[in-house]
Amino acid sequence: MAHAFLSKRIVTPQGTQPGALLVDDGTICAICRQSEIPADTIVDDCGNDALLPGLVDSHVHINQPGRTEWEGFRTATRAAAAGGYTTLVDMPLNCLPETTTVAALEEKREAASGECFVDWAPWGGAVADNQQHILPLAQAGVLGFKCFLIYPGCDGFTMIDQQQLEAALPSVAQSGLPLLVHAELAAPIDAATQSLRNADWRQYQTYLASRPDEAELQAIRLMIRLCRQYSFRLHIVHLSTALALAELKSARKAGLPITVETCPHYLHFAAEEIADGNTLLKCAPPIRSKENQRGLWRGLHDGTIDMIVTDHSPCPPDMKRTDTGRFDQAWGGIASLSLALSIIHTECFNRGDTLEDITRWMSSAPAALAGLAHQAGALQPGRDANFIRFDTEATFAVTPDKLHYRHAISPYLGETLRGIVKATYLRGELVYHEGAFAPTPQGREVKL
């Protein structure tokens, strides 16, 4: 039976409007006036809660199989549902085996089976020696490929040098899928680290100095040149330096198929505010200055940065080395799946940005990157009925019980955020409601 969800604010690609979201058999069938709701339709009045499309996070480290003690499909997708995400695209590293072959992809699919509260899809890996696996992975259903131009922190997922990358790029281009690049080069980092041998690694400024903007800038310049030469879809992950924006903007203006993401932690935290020893805020590339943060927001506003994704990268608490407070010893990663919408909404409320902006950055643009815009990323007839009820007025304090992922640690603990996900629907079915989850995971792998 059809179901109508009433709201004064339904955020659609055509704008925000009052009315009813009509759902039947898991699909959005119409967005209409309340007076146009068909007879015999079940009506759910959402009042002043906004209805947004389910968020899409194209940068998540789920870490299963092999490192489920770090996270896992069940806990990651539970946190995602609580945060308003209905689709996750999983990164190919930190799991064992890494998703660099079709056989490893099938192991991941087996691990995910029956475990997911929201939908998921895999990225494949482009590493030093798997060029022959690129096209088979594409044919087997990965949505694109991730590579590192620098050591990624885990030995099994090898960085790729320029020669190896150029050997893989014809296959990437032939696949038509995007290449997601961790854009830092080692040489500027090695030089900076060498000069810091006697520095105090409990100081955040030491860590920041060890990952200079130049490492990102050189990597992005290299990738722009290769994109021009090999004509593949290039995506820059977790951009942290605003200094790269002018060159990215110029390359896009020249017609190169380049997209760019940044993350909540770069838009919310600033280096000047990070206390020494607060290794919960270590990530790579690093969180930079307040002025740099203002530049990233300008990049979002002018469209040079397309999207905001979490880079949800959890680990067991002891790996953050809060005991020593040494940034050189701590795992680099910040988990935020359950909080990201509220973080960005808080920032946008203070800046005057709209729910339509947030929806574009956190739903439609990541869905387009992953090739899933035909079914996710917007409230539009014919798409999956993946949506959330979002109370834009309510505030809450971040406490461990609000996190929902495996290890309840977070640099956001104690903060007050504005905007609460009250309910998350997957194909019209309630998967999260005010702290409670569906009894049975309903997520599945989504495909191109």
Automatic annotation (TrEMBL):
Superkingdom, natural source: Bacteria
UniProt-listed SUPFAM superfamilies: Composite domain of metallo-dependent hydrolases (SSF51338), Metallo-dependent hydrolases (SSF51556)
Domain Amidohydrolase-related stretches: 51-431
The EC number(s) this enzyme carries: 3.5.2.5
Family: Belongs to the metallo-dependent hydrolases superfamily. DHOase family. Class I DHOase subfamily. Belongs to the metallo-dependent hydrolases superfamily. Allantoinase family.
Function, in words: Catalyzes the reversible cyclization of carbamoyl aspartate to dihydroorotate.
Protein name, UniProt field: allantoinase
Native source organism of the sequence: Tunturiibacter lichenicola
